Amino acid sequence: MLIHPKVHFKPYTHASGGWGSANSVMKILWREQAFAKAPKALLKQNKPDGFACVSCAWAKPGHPHALEFCENGAKATAWELTSKKTDPAFFSNHTLSDLRQWPDYDLEQQGRLTHPMRYDSATDRYRETTWEEAYRDIGAKLKTMEPDSVVFYASGRASLETSFMYQLFARAYGTNNLPDSSNMCHESTSVGLQESIGVPVGTVTLDDFNHTDCLFFFGQNVGSNAPRMLHQLQDVRKRNVPIITFNPLRERGLERFVNPQSPTEMLTPESTVISTQYHQVAIGGDTAAMIGIAKALLELDDQAQRDGGNAILDNDFIARHTEGFEAFALSVRAHHWQHIERKSGLTRGALEAAATTYARSQRVMMIYGMGLTQHRHGVENVQMVVNLLLMRGNIGKPGAGVCPVRGHSNVQGQRTVGITEDPKKVPAELIEQHFGFKVPQQLGLCTVDACEGILTGQVRGFIGLGGNFLRAIPDTSRMEPAWETLELNVQISTKLNRTHLLPAKNTWLLPCLGRIEIDRQNGKEQTYTTEDSTGCIHGWRGNAEPVGPHLRAETSIVAGLALATLPSGHSIDWQAWCDDYSRIRTAIGTIYPAIFHDMESRMAEPGGFHRPIAAAKREWSTKSGKAQFITPVTLNEDDDITPEVVPRDVLQLMTLRSNDQFNTTIYGYEDRFRGISGTREVVFMHLNDIVRLGFEVGERVLITTAVESEVKRQVGPFEIVAYDIPEGCAAAYYPECNSLVPLWHHAERSKVPAAKSVPVKLSSVGNN
Ligand SMILES: Nc1nc2c(c(=O)[nH]1)N[C@H]1C(S)=C(S)[C@@H](COP(=O)(O)OP(=O)(O)OC[C@H]3O[C@@H](n4cnc5c(=O)[nH]c(N)nc54)[C@H](O)[C@@H]3O)O[C@H]1N2
Ligand SMILES: Nc1nc2c(c(=O)[nH]1)N[C@H]1C(S)=C(S)[C@@H](COP(=O)(O)OP(=O)(O)OC[C@H]3O[C@@H](n4cnc5c(=O)[nH]c(N)nc54)[C@H](O)[C@@H]3O)O[C@H]1N2
Ligand SMILES: [Mo]
Fold it and tell me: Domain boundaries in the chain?
């Protein structure tokens, strides 16, 4: 057996949370030399008088635990408050060609960016500049460019205040090119839910967890990516509420949990069983699985009618509130069980078991993540969740509803205040009335379109409000050379990443404050706001001293760029807004009064305030005025390869996160729950596939995309790990595998890259 010396694979036998989690937090505090600031900061994390965790978007309770953070939230805090610095001396020691050889982990490990820098092509280095010079030169450059050739990307962390200013800046400049990270993430939700129930966001709040009597979980890895939700799940389980999970992998956080903040749990061998049914659905098999559940429900309902029992369907709700049920039911009945079993990878018995529990429950929530949205049929997956909920009237009553788990901590909020490429989604008239400029009519570019534009040369400039665009997008090895032909690349960032290392003709790196840091403007500490995954809006403030005197707040950087770029004479007083953020909030309230009226007082309430969500009140803002059953057109996860003739050596690859990363930020090489340490260059496969394809466990292989063979997309060598994953499926880490995902391989309608199902082939090293 070939074993790569770096890799250590040992199945993890403990629950999620517990000592493993406490240990992991101590390690990162130590490594980041963050003991001076982090412990004090952690006490304020997600507290009404503190700061919003910079990790996930999960809801922050009004009455938080003494320590309202999780292992990964603590890592994110330590990562931001590190005492290490990437300063001008660092940059003078390294050329960009040198730094491009470094792995993502090493780049961000250098610490926080401290000074505004400008790329100097003569020396291939960043050199220090002043803010004034940077604003002046960027502004001058932007003035010479065609507004629709410039892209204003936002990553999802910036506050509501910054996001609102940023979209105004882009639109006043003359473009709707406002792609964001949700274009790679929950856009399938925004498109799917809008069509089905008339809102682009989920309908549940934290309180629903107190009333629910059944939860479904599709394709979300709660233990790593939204661990604070484990508290709600644990409480729900204490009431004996069933949790039914659909995931190709047996994720530890969905199996067992020990609350690391409970001394009794830490000192006893007790852990809470999370999922009561665990269905290892095939990658991309969810729609088929849900069709199976729907079919079983219809069959149970038929049976009840024959027996004179209670109806299983909520016929009254269906009649009063929905449209399209007949066609949907007809189509579900027409699917044969054999076909459903083949497509979902699950047995009829398993799907009937899920349906029976569903049928017995009165208040059901369905929770999901990237396992549903990042597919060719990501929108249909989301709409199928809604179909199931509608069948039993599970939207718009306590304890029930749809719960997409958003990613970045303010990604939902940035959309609410206008970050979108679609001008129809912003109140253009109000903007014109108050700020005196016309919102451009032309549809802007989403993320995939922006990438196309970079490839074709239509896009000439890029401004990044956070994020690591070039690493997060698909088809990275095709995108990188095209990127270097850009005229302008401006990155507003906290840490060095690969996007900073591929310079355009004019490139700047502008270091900003993180949200944990105290933001002083005009001599006053400022507060800021975010919206979480449950539509709840909170006020926060940073509490750590900034890492250096030259950092500027994101608001102030956006204002600086706007002032240097826009013609004088329009009616936004950027400077006054920066001096006092309550003025930005007043402006937000003027443009979005239904959501943000009286924001200043409401944002300070413990737990914040909820935006109105019509569907949660059974008001349907759809075209028909009713909630829509939308029938999926196919049960195939991917039509790129005709499923009936899939060659036997093609596997469906999902790219996913480890427990030791935040997106492209790699905290370390330890995916504790999956038992991997020392490397991320592994591919998880079923033992039968390994044997069938003639490989060995531990062998190092190249992974090649199996569609569009005229373009070579390949990564590796990666080491094969035998893993509990359905046959025909494989898994490997994001972002290492992003160059395997063709740009066109995205969800229809939402354009979310289908990062969870890429047809691939493996080959032995030296044999391709
Ligand atoms: N610590 C930490 N927290 C994070 C992040 C992070 O990187 N680190 N990222 C943040 C962001 S931006 C986001 S969007 C979220 C992402 O959080 P998640 O939505 O959990 O995203 P992933 O880790 O990519 O994988 C999701 C899960 O989908 C499963 N899956 C894959 N394919 C399928 C499928 O076809 N069907 C089903 N049912 N399941 C499938 C995988 O096994 C995995 O468990 O987390 C946010 N929070
Ligand atoms: N193959 C594959 N690709 C994927 C995914 C996948 O599952 N598989 N997931 C997709 C998803 S869900 C998402 S959301 C995207 C993520 O895409 P992005 O949001 O673009 O990427 P991040 O890795 O979150 O960005 C990290 C960088 O943000 C900067 N940063 C951190 N904090 C701050 C801050 O407070 N302010 C500013 N200005 N900058 C900051 C730091 O410089 C850091 O290097 O990736 C997508 N890409
Ligand atoms: Mo995300």
Answer: 8-80, 113-183+410-591, 187-405, 643-767
Class of domain 187-405: alpha beta
519 with 528: CB under 8 angstroms?
yes
Distance from the Cα of residue 760 to its chain's centroid: 24
**For 318-331, how does the pLDDT look when each residue is reduced to its tens digit (9 = 90+)?**
999 999 999 999 99
Query: What's at 661, amino acid-wise?
Result: Q
pTM: 0.96
In tens, the pLDDT along 527-541 reads 999 999 999 999 999
What is the longest distance spanned by two Cα atoms in the chain? 84
3-state helix, strand, coil in the chain (%, to 5): 40, 20, 45
| Ligand 2 contacts CB of residue 414 (under 6 A) | no
Q: What are phi and psi of 454, to 5 degrees?
A: -70, -40
pLDDT score recorded for residue 629: 98
The CA-based angle 668-492-521, given to 5 degrees, is 110
Task: State the closest ligand 2 atom to the C-alpha of 108, by its place in the atom list counted from 1.
Answer: 44
Hey, which bits of 665-736 come out as E strands? 665-666, 670-671, 676-677, 682-685, 700-705, 714-722, 729-733
- For domain 643-767, give the fold: Barwin-like endoglucanases (2.40.40)
CB-based contact 79:32 (threshold 8 Å): yes
Give the domain 113-183+410-591 fold.
Rossmann fold (3.40.50)
| Exposure string over 546-583, b if 16+ CB within 10 A, otherwise e | bbeebbbbbbbbbbbbbbbbbeeeeebebeebbbebee
**Quick one: which atom of ligand 2 is closest to the CA of 664?**
23
For atom 24 of ligand 1, the residue with the nearest CA is 656
Low-confidence ranges of the chain (pLDDT < 50): 1-5
